[in-house]
Amino acid sequence: MLDVDYHHGNGTQDIFFERGDVLTVSIHGTPETEYPYFLGIADERGIGAGEGCNLNLPMPRGTDWAAWSTALETALEAVAAFGADALVVALGVDTYEGDPISAFRLGETHFPMIGRRLAAMRLPTVLVQEGGYAVKEIGSNVAGVLRAFG
Fold it and tell me: How is the chain split into domains, by residue range?
C-alpha cells in the first residue's frame, strides 16, 4: 500500500500496523505542522508481526518535486524489497502546488511522471482516488497519472 496523498494515511496505518503481510508506505506532510497531527512520524515502523512493515516519509511544508520524487523512489524501493505481489495506491493529488489546503509544490507536469514511475513497477496496481481540492486541476492531475497505465 502506497499513500501519496498530502495527509498521512492514519487509518490505513492503523489497520495494518501489526501485520507482517502488508507493507504500508506514506509520503505526506509532516505531522509537526500538518493534519493529522501526531501521526505519521518516521519512527512508526509497525509492531509485533508488523515490525518494519510501515514506512512513513513525512515531508516539510514547501516540499518541491526534487525532494518529493526522492521520497517516491525510497517508497518504491521499499515496495520492491518487500516483494509485493500488487500495489494499491492512495492517489491524492492534493500535493499539487495550487491546492488550497496543502503546502507541497508539485506541478501539473509532475503527475504524469508519478504515473510513469508507478507503472514501471510492473505490478498489478489499483489507484484509489483520494484528496485534491484545487477543483479545476483535479481531473488533469489524476489523468496525468492514469495515462501511464493506458
Answer: 2-149
3-state secondary structure the chain: CEECCCCCCHHHHHHHCCCCCCCEEEEEECCCCCCCCCCCCCCCCCCHHHCCCEEEEEECCCCEHHHHHHHHHHHHHHHHHHCCCCEEEEECCCCECCCCCCCCEECCCHHHHHHHHHHCCCCCEEEEECCCCCHHHHHHHHHHHHHHHC
Please state, in angstroms and rounded to a whole number, the distance separating the CA atoms of residues 88 and 68.
19
Pick from 110, 127, 125: which is nearest to 71 by CA?
Answer: 110
Architecture of the domain made up of 2-149: 3-Layer(aba) Sandwich (3.40)
Mean pLDDT of 137-146: 98
For 72-91, what is each residue's pLDDT tens digit? 999 999 999 999 999 999 99
- pLDDT per residue over 90-99, tens digit each? 999 999 999 9
The C-alpha atoms of residue 18 and residue 109 are separated, in whole angstroms, by 37
